[in-house]
Design goal:
By secondary structure, the chain is of the alpha+beta class. The chain has one domain (4-129): TT1751-like domain (TATA-Binding Protein). The protein is built from five helices and five strands. Strand 4 and strand 5 (91-96) form a beta hairpin. The chain is globular and about 40 Å long.
Amino acid sequence: MSFALSTTVDLDFDRTVAALREALSTQGFGILTEVDLSGTLKTKLDVDVPRQLLLGACNPAYAYRALQAEERVGLLLPCSLTVRAGADGRTLVDAMDPALMVELTGTSALTEVAAEVRSALRAALDALETR
């Protein structure tokens, strides 16, 4: 099983981040956390890596339903996404596949909400491809 939903777009990094925020918002997600991974690595280790941003997205209704099915699922929330600058000028976007919640917890009651979250994240990534 793949652990990520992915897309590569012909937008620069900053435009991709803005478009992703909009696409996630359209699907009912807000951004709870944001980590500039490349900036942190530069500051802490003085290493240069291509730009990479980690986003923690949450749709409260989905999160609540998941918590009702498995109270420890909070360990796997919020939905994790990365935006990475590609060497070819394109930008790569990955989202953790919510089906992993079911696989990791063994809680079949999460199956329905995981499928709905997966569909919403896939829709957000697909919206980037039409830009």
